[in-house]
Structure formats: C-alpha cells, structure tokens
Amino acid sequence: MADGVLRGCHVLVVEDEFMLAEDLSLELADAGAVVIGPAQTLERAIELLARPDALDVAVLDVNLQGKPVYPVADALFERKVPFVFTTGYDASILPARFRSVDCCSKPIDMGRLLEALQTAIVTARAV
After folding, report:
1. What is the DSSP string of 35-87?
2. C-alpha to C-alpha distance for 127 and 121, rounded to whole angstroms
3. How much is the pTM?
4. The CATH homologous superfamily of the domain defined by 10-126
5. In order along the chain (127 residues), what is the average pLDDT of each group of 10 residues?
6. Are 125 and 15 in contact (CB under 8 A)?
C-alpha cells in the first residue's frame, strides 16, 4: 500500500463483532486514519452518518446483528463516499447495485483491506 493514503482520512468503521471492530480501528489508526466509530448496530451507523465530520471512506460489515447494512451503503453512495464491504458470506449475496464495490472476506486480511480502501479512495478522487 502506498504510504500515507489513509493519513488524516476519516474512516467510518461499521462492524458488529467487538474484537474485529477493535482490531480494525487499531489497524486503521496505525495507518494514520481518523477512525469514526466503530458502530456495532445499524442504528449507531446511521447516527454517525448524521455527524458533521466529513467521511473519506468506510468499512461496512454486510450483516449487522441480522440486519443488512445497505441503508448505510446507500447513504454513502449518495454522498459519493467510497466504501468497502466485509462479510463472512459469499460476495454474491450483495445486491446488484453494489456489485462494483470491493468486498473483503472474513477472516479479514488487513493488508488486503488496506489495499481495497486505498483503491476506493484513489478511484473516488479520480472521478
């Protein structure tokens, strides 16, 4: 991963597994990101979206305590904020509108996730 791509970026973390949410937050902070969250419920994620902080990118667990994260993904998509999904399921479960979004399988390979976030940010900036 190119050094510094996440430095200073506000990254929303939406993950319902406490330990994984903590690990993601620490890894992202180590990469220089400003972590927003983590949100462990759909409701909390929506609350965080309402904050005035500008988001640069997000990591979204597809399934939050049995609820799909798609309302958050739709809101980010409308705001043109790039995001990456994480899931323990096959990526084919994603609705067609999200098939172009990168999806990292669980258990998460942090190097792969950081690369996916970098690609999402660079692609969004190029548009």
Report:
1. EEEEE-SHHHHHHHHTSSSPP-EEEEESEETTEESHHHHHHHHHTT--EEEEE
2. 10
3. 0.94
4. Response regulator (3.40.50.2300)
5. 77 97 96 96 95 91 95 96 94 90 95 95 89
6. no
